[in-house]
Design goal:
CATH architecture of chain A: 3 Solenoid
CATH superfamily of chain A: Glutamate synthase, alpha subunit, C-terminal domain
Helix content of chain B: 25-40%
Number of strands of chain A: 11
Number of strands of chain B: 15
Number of domains of chain A: 1
Low-confidence stretches of chain B: none
Order of helices and strands of chain B: EHEEHEEHEEHEEHHHEEEEEE
Order of helices and strands of chain A: EHEEEEEEEEEHE
Strand content of chain B: 25-35%
Helix content of chain A: under 10%
Number of helices of chain A: 2
Distance between the termini of chain B: 29 Å
Mean pLDDT of chain B: 95
Largest sheet of chain A: 11 strands, mixed
Radius of gyration of chain A: 18 Å
Shape of chain A: elongated
CATH architecture of the largest domain in chain B: 4-Layer Sandwich
Strand content of chain A: 15-25%
Strand order of the largest sheet of chain A: 1-2-3-4-5-6-7-8-9-11-10
CATH topology of chain A: Pectate Lyase C-like
CATH superfamily of the largest domain in chain B: Aminohydrolase, N-terminal nucleophile (Ntn) domain
Number of helices of chain B: 7
Oligomer: heterodimer
Shape of chain B: globular
Chain lengths: 227, 294
């Protein structure tokens, strides 16, 4: 089903996608003429596919649960912020705070993400095929941040238990963020992420792993299984 | 918050449409700044003439026209709502003195060989309509929609700020060291007309350009001297530049095609521009000066 944002109001498009008639079994939607509007596809809760043909504004796919959203363009600030589950795929670049505070699901960015990618992430997996800007992974708590390009200044500042994997150069590490050993289990886990994201030209063992030195917060080994 | 927009034409193709392109950009940034708006348009005309952008405030246009024509022979005046563009070959020192002496209620918004500036309080859509921005042509233009934080909602508090010949600057953000910097620049001879932080940034740029520094080098030193949050767009007669502070909290996105470079706080401001979907679209990196022209 095509939803044209030149003809329909943004609010009516979002309301439609948030309140689907289950009897109709519509599962595939295309949104045309997004024209940088904010909060497109925010708050979706059903297992549907939405393809957005163009550039989107702020908070696209925010709070997403179960839905699979593809953005055929660039995304503004806070794409997939607070996502719980499902998948958001940005085919262009993403602005700052991509995947901010998200609890789950998968965010794939084919281009670059700017500053604060994965800020305060709480369980989401983020794969950036390009590079990320400064303060990425700031105060991130759980999940995986995988970057195939480079990372800007103060990577992983004040982070908790997020795993950060970087293929390229890191301009500088933030407070309490340190490089950690890539064990077999990490290589295996990362290889699966790369394979699932169709990244075939890079090898997991060529990435470096970064995580918390656990000096800034009260890390309790008893809780390690919950991260 | 505030919304900033700018467009610099690399070819002549869209010169006639510049006003139309810029007005669409300003209209789409209403949500970021609903309380005032303004814009500067650069348009080359008679090389011998200076153009003075004046806001008449309460003064009657007919009275002003009659009196100024007596004082400046061979001048030409065009009215745009409460603003006028006064064209004369007389040099800025003389004209500014005449205006300040004889018309205390008139504010000089800007002047130069090419620049025309208009700004006013009110909803951006109304301001754009009032000054008939759509009808303008030119080579580059800069605009601003304001959500006031640092100083009052007045015409003087609106952007763009012009503190030198053919110069202007718009700002999204706030400066924290503007009082100190204003004092230093005042000592060096800069004159400020408002309490606004952005006017200080514009004065800083003017001061540096008058010392023969390039626009690019000026903004590079500005990264050290201007403390606060900012995305700036600045224009000169032949140049156009954008810079974000190192923290880069204030947004900006650039779209570049063979014919133009457009910049705005949000992509939605440029969604109507011709060929934008095929443009190279990127975010200016923090602490890097991007400039076109010279």
């Amino acid at each position: 089903m095509e939803l044209d944002l030149k003809k329909l109001k943004l609010r009516s498009v979002n309301e439609k996608l948030q309140n689907l008639d289950r009897r109709k079994n519509d599962r595939d939607f295309v949104i045309t003429n997004p024209e940088g509007n904010h909060a497109i596809c925010a708050g979706l809760t059903e297992n549907i596919n939405v393809n957005i043909k163009g550039h989107v504004g702020y908070y696209c796919g925010g709070m997403n649960q179960k839905a699979e959203i593809t953005i055929e363009g660039n995304a503004g600030t806070g794409v997939a912020e607070n996502m719980m589950s499902g998948k958001v795929h940005v085919k262009g670049n993403a602005s700052q705070s991509a995947g901010a505070t998200a609890h789950g699901g998968l965010l794939i960015i084919d281009g670059d993400a700017s500053s604060r990618c994965g800020i305060s992430m709480k369980g989401i997996d983020i794969i950036v095929k390009g590079s990320v800007g400064h303060m990425s992974g700031f105060m991130s708590q759980s999940g995986n941040l995988i970057v195939c390009g480079n990372a800007g200044e103060a990577l992983g500042d004040s982070l908790y238990e997020t795993n950060i994997y970087i293929k390229g150069k890191v301009k500088s590490l933030g407070a309490d963020c340190v490089e950690k050993k890539m064990d077999k289990k990490h290589i295996k886990k990362l290889a699966k992420f790369l394979k699932d994201a169709n990244i075939n030209n890079l090898k997991a063992e060529h990435f470096k792993r970064y995580g918390s030195a656990r000096k800034l917060y009260n890390f309790k080994i008893d809780n390690v299984s919950s991260y | 918050m505030c919304g900033i927009v700018g467009i610099y034409l690399k070819t002549k193709k869209f010169e006639k449409n510049l006003g139309k392109m810029l007005s669409g950009m300003l209209n789409n940034m209403e949500s970021r700044g609903p309380d005032s708006a303004g814009f500067a348009i650069y348009k080359e005309e008679n090389e011998k003439n200076y153009k003075y952008s004046l806001c008449l405030n309460e003064l009657n246009f007919k009275d002003f026209k009659k009196e100024i024509s007596n004082k400046l022979s061979k001048s030409q005046i065009n009215q745009f709502s409460d603003h006028v563009i006064l064209k004369t070959f007389e040099k800025p020192n003389k004209v500014i003195d005449i205006i300040n002496l004889n018309f205390p209620e008139v504010s000089i918004v800007g002047y130069g060989k090419s620049i025309e500036i208009f700004k006013q309080v009110g909803n951006p859509k109304d301001v754009v309509k009032k000054f008939n921005l759509e009808s303008f042509c030119g080579t580059h233009g800069i605009g601003h929609t304001r959500m006031a934080t640092e100083s009052a909602i007045t015409t003087d508090g609106s952007h763009p700020y012009s503190t030198g010949e053919d110069e202007c600057l718009v700002h999204n953000g706030s400066l924290s060291n503007h009082n100190n910097l204003r004092r230093e620049l005042t000592k060096k001879g800069n004159i400020f007309n408002s309490e606004n932080d952005t006017e200080v940034a514009a004065g800083y740029v003017s001061n540096s350009l008058s010392n023969n520094k390039s626009l690019k080098d000026t903004l590079i030193s500005g990264l050290k001297d201007l403390d606060g949050f900012y995305t700036f767009i600045t224009g000169t007669r032949k140049g156009f530049a954008v810079v974000r502070d190192e923290i880069a909290c204030k947004p900006a996105v650039i779209a570049e095609t063979d014919n133009y470079v457009a910049i705005a706080s949000e992509f939605q401001a440029m969604a109507h521009l011709p060929g934008v979907n095929g443009a190279k679209i990127f975010e200016p990196e923090p602490g890097i000066v991007y400039s076109w022209g010279n």
